[in-house]
């Protein structure tokens, strides 16, 4: 037996008693909602002769965690903090959670939410304490029109709902492909949400629809109460990804130089330490970071952390055993950048789920690594390579659809062009230029990479729910 929520959109008044009851029972802070009521509207007025007609419509959708058949949140969690009960209820073991927020990114329904007071992720747990006591969930008990309810589902090959579903006209969405789910539910979802839905007429028309109360239900960019870099949004991730990628690029290009110079080794170590501290600064509960290798079987975030650790270990080998560790360092660097890209290839964030993410990460590693190595060991081929990689970045930028933030993109484009010009100067005038030019070009390219990574994280705003 498995539990599922049911919702009759055709009769919901939008009173939000369910949303309030959930918030009250679970003592949620301001800006954190486990259950949200989406207000959807559309249509317009049209003049026909001397008369006016309208096709205006509006409806509500109350949604929380759907306790899916295939919960994406549980699959990506690096510490394996999610527990799936025999009755299908999915909840978080909060004692394990590191507060990284990755589960919220991956969930098609944005169900997990970060609690800034407790510094970890939380979400609807179906009020299993009420269920175990023979009581309904708080949201169901609070609904005055009884449009929100629960049913039990028979565990069979097709997950057929109880006899109540057909009688009430409810469609079991766990049996219906994602592309057929009504707006605003994400059509790309493959998680099979345990939600039975009776559609409002507005859900099934062909008119354009939009969410009217987006500012209320949108996931909040709540400043994280961490022990470092408090309230800086995704800045820790910008630092971690760029440091890790620069170090990986340096390791790859240094593989072709003999021997490993002391300045390069020191720079690599500094980047690894800075990147590691920044990654910890992103966590709400950094003391649980030791658990992040618990889910290597499924979580790309766990694999990224493993490869970062192996990369650091290879660097230590190069540092203490000269002549050893260069090949493992280069290979771990390539694996680290690839795993970083895989972390962000999420269907819930369409702008990230693209070849551009992988290409951009490897290009960042290449151009930053080449220029950083050039500072220590000036080589014409490094400057030429950096120039070609910058040109490829322009191509990736131009291939984006509906990118937004035009001013920032133009500034970044201008910096890339300056970087390409400077790289050409480094290559062909190297003997007549000082280290000041190489340093200036590196800083220009680093600035455009920071802007590019900031733009990358701004695409979070484009997620469906």
The gist of it:
By secondary structure, the chain is an alpha+beta fold.
Record keyword descriptors for this entry.
13 strands, alpha+beta, Formate dehydrogenase/DMSO reductase fold, four-stranded mixed beta sheet, 465 residues, globular, 45% helix, Alpha-Beta Plaits, three-stranded antiparallel beta sheet
End-to-end separation in angstroms reads 29 Å
Would you tell me which CATH topology of the largest domain applies? Formate dehydrogenase/DMSO reductase fold
Helix/strand-derived category reads alpha+beta
CATH superfamily of the largest domain: Formate dehydrogenase/DMSO reductase domain
Number of domains: 2
Rg over alpha carbons: 26 Å
Helix/strand order: EHEEEEHEEHEEHHEHEEHEHHHHHHHHH
Tally of extended strands?
13
Task: Sum up the overall morphology in one term.
Answer: globular
Describe it.
The protein is built from 16 helices and 13 strands. With 465 residues, it is an alpha+beta fold. It folds into 2 domains: 2-217, Alpha-Beta Plaits (2-Layer Sandwich); 235-462, Up-down Bundle (Formate dehydrogenase/DMSO reductase fold). The strands form 5 sheets. It has a 4-stranded mixed β-sheet. It has a 3-stranded antiparallel β-sheet with strand order 5-2-13, with no helix packed on it. The chain has a two-stranded antiparallel ribbon with strand order 3-4. Helix 9 (235-254) packs antiparallel against helix 12 (326-344) and helix 13 packs antiparallel against helix 14 (380-398). The longest helix is centred in the last third of the chain and has 24 residues, at 435-458. The two termini are 29 Å apart. The relative contact order is 0.11.
